[in-house]
Structures are given as structure tokens and as C-alpha cells.
């Protein structure tokens, strides 16, 4: 992994206080920062876990997490899951699809885990699962396109 990249895990800011002390988050994406902030950490097995705590501002009119918030978090998780494959390169989401599986209440710990199902070139395929307090909330698949540096 490059230590001098602009977007990869190594460049993510380290959280120094609160529930997510020791986790990292990207500060270069104003929308994700305002929506979350969302956090990630590398697990002992080399995979990446993403998480955030569900707050009242993340809820819909029915009192459960808004589907748009779940999809925004899944989009963040795509890039966390693909950290090693991206190797610090810039990329964009080409496709993100999800199936809603269950409601997430306020206060829940929301987590995402997944895997790269195909990589090695400019196009990276990812699948994952978002849970709320350990219960399935959203299964997702996504396609990331690596960008050429100018």
C-alpha cells in the first residue's frame, strides 16, 4: 500500500476520541462526512470493517434508518472493502445495487463487511452486507472504476 496516496486507507484520518477511537475515516468527501461520518478499520484477517452509530438524523418518517442513508454507507463500504485492490488509486462508483432486508433502529451499531469478487484491472466488483446491531439490513453489490491519474 502506498503511504503517500490521496484517498487510500493510509491517508484516512485517525479518530482520536469517542466510540470509534482508533478507526479511520476519509475527510475528502464532504457528503460522506456530513452523512456519517462513517468509519473503517482493518481486521486481523486483512479485511476491512466499516461502521457508524445510527442517530435520529439518519431516520425516515417511520422512525427507522432511511434507505438512502443505508445506500450511502454501502457506497462508502465499497471503497473500504476494495482498499487493497485500489492501492491508493482514485476511483468512482459505476454501479451500486442493494436489497433491503430489515429495519435499523436509532442507536444501532451499523456495520458493513464484504469482499472483492473480481479485481485486477480498472474495474473492481464488490459484494457486501450491512447489518444493524448484527441483524441483516442491506445486501449490496457494486462496481468501482479505477481512474487514470493525470
Automatic annotation (TrEMBL):
MF-aspect GO terms: thiolester hydrolase activity
Residue stretches making up the Thioesterase domain: 62-131
InterPro entries hit by this protein: HotDog_dom_sf, Thioestr_dom
Protein name: Uncharacterized domain 1-containing protein
Protein's organism: Erythrobacter sanguineus
Amino acid at each position: 500500500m502506498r503511504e503517500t496516496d490521496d484517498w487510500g486507507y493510509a491517508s484516512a484520518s485517525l479518530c482520536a476520541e469517542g466510540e470509534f477511537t482508533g478507526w479511520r475515516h476519509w475527510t475528502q468527501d464532504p457528503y460522506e462526512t456530513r452523512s456519517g461520518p462513517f468509519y473503517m478499520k482493518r481486521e486481523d484477517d486483512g479485511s476491512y470493517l466499516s461502521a457508524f452509530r445510527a442517530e435520529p438524523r439518519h431516520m425516515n418518517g417511520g422512525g427507522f434508518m432511511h434507505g438512502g442513508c443505508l445506500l450511502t454507507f454501502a457506497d462508502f463500504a465499497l471503497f473500504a472493502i476494495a482498499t487493497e485492490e485500489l492501492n491508493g488509486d482514485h476511483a468512482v462508483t459505476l454501479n451500486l445495487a442493494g436489497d433491503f432486508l430489515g429495519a435499523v433502529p436509532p442507536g444501532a451499531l451499523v456495520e458493513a463487511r464484504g469482499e472483492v469478487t473480481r479485481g485486477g484491472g480498472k474495474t473492481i466488483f464488490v459484494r457486501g452486507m450491512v447489518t444493524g446491531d448484527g441483524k441483516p439490513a442491506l445486501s449490496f453489490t457494486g462496481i468501482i472504476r479505477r481512474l487514470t491519474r493525470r
